[in-house]
Design goal:
The chain has 330 residues and is α+β, with helices and mostly antiparallel strands. The chain has helices at residues 40-44, 67-80, 88-101, 176-193, 235-246, 258-265, 303-316, and strands spanning 11-17, 26-29, 47-49, 52-56, 62-65, 112-121, 136-145, 156-161, 197-200, 213-218, 221-224, 250-253, 270-276, 280-289, 292-295, 327-329. Bound molecules: pyridoxal-5'-phosphate (PLP).
Length: 330
């Protein structure tokens, strides 16, 4: 199968803000957009995006997972980047319109239709380094996808990195610059340590990887950093923590230091996992710290990780009751 996110449906939903009002959303070709080379986004990175998925159920119907939560995060990113605000109902309608348009192309599980809302500042104004864009473009791309981490259940290797992924007030914003700033450390970790991802732990504070949240599972307890501005408030993280509570597990949202992580990782029953829309819940088998490989528990994918991943997939795939109202049928 093609690399994750490299295949696009030929049309997308699009709406533009002209400085005073949003125009009516339309379905337009997805192969190009027209931007002035001086557009605000290209110089001052006024951009944010989202990632969510639509799933095909056994009866043929299609459901979008946690659409409202992703739209709320997109609005939060928009506001924190001083992009023009939009009505959540506008984006919700755009997502529904384009997913309905391509309902027949939504893959069957374990595949899905990845949905990528994007918001960019379009004003041609290179003098506005410290001033918001007046105009913007909001569009929703679709990309049919399979499993993100090929092999799905292979335990990942994470390099513990002492630096931050991005500026501490930017982490909760899903914006391109944060990914750009994580690129060099991630490429170095791959080349030097054959790591799959970097786990950013500035000053020993365990935060997240380049595209997923980090969860430590110690017996009946899940430990993960409490929400603050420094990292992305993952929708999958919230989902897994809710499912874990439903299963009677203890959820501890609090600071986790590298020292505590390494100490707990050494115990045989410990598991670790990455949560994200793309990663789903991916097992972590090895932490690389100060040049040493340290196994998490046995180093193999853990049973609790598999159980939680299954519980999540079962809801997404329409095989378990959607008790929390997370699915939007199109
Ligand atoms: N952290 C970062 C930096 C991400 O890019 C993502 C996105 O997938 C996540 C965490 C997980 O967020 P979500 O579960 O909403 O996909």
């Amino acid at each position: 199968m093609a690399a994750f996110g490299s295949v696009f449906m030929p049309e997308m939903a699009m709406a533009q803000f002209n400085g005073s009002a949003w125009d009516a959303a339309a379905i337009v070709p997805a192969n190009s957009i027209s931007l002035h080379p001086g557009a605000h986004v290209l110089h001052y990175a006024s951009t944010c995006f989202e990632g969510l998925k639509a799933f095909r159920h056994e009866d043929g119907s299609v459901a979008i997972f946690r659409m409202d939560k992703n739209i709320a995060r997109m609005l939060q990113s928009t506001e924190l980047l001083s992009l023009p605000k939009f009505d959540p109902a506008l984006l919700s309608q755009m997502i529904l319109d384009i997913v309905r348009h391509y309902a027949a192309d939504v893959p069957t599980p374990p595949g899905s239709m990845y949905i990528r809302p994007t918001h960019i500042g379009t004003e041609p104004a290179i003098g506005k380094a410290a001033t918001p864009t007046l105009t913007s473009m909001l569009y929703v791309l679709l990309s049919p996808v399979g499993d993100y981490f090929a092999g799905g259940s292979r335990a990942l290797r994470l390099l513990l990195e002492d630096n931050a992924r991005c500026a501490p007030h930017m982490g909760m914003i899903k914006s391109g610059g944060n990914y750009a700033s994580a690129l060099q450390p991630t490429m170095q970790a791959k080349a030097k340590y054959q790591a799959d991802q970097v786990l950013f732990c500035p000053h020993g504070d365990v935060q997240e990887t380049g595209a997923a949240n980090f969860l430590l599972i110690d017996g009946n307890e899940i430990i993960t950093k409490a929400l603050d501005t420094s990292f992305l408030h993952g929708v999958t993280r919230d989902t897994i923590l809710t499912l874990a509570r439903d299963l009677g597990m203890t959820v501890s949202e609090r600071d986790l230091t590298v020292a505590e992580l390494l100490e707990r990782a050494a115990k045989p029953g410990t598991e670790a996992a990455l949560s994200g829309t793309a990663a789903v819940l991916a097992p972590v088998g090895t932490l690389i710290y100060q040049g040493q490989d340290i196994k998490v528990g046995t180093g193999e994918p853990g049973a609790t990780t598999a159980r939680l991943r299954q519980a999540l997939n079962d809801i997404q795939w329409g095989k378990a009751e959607d008790k929390h109202g997370w699915l939007t049928k199109i």
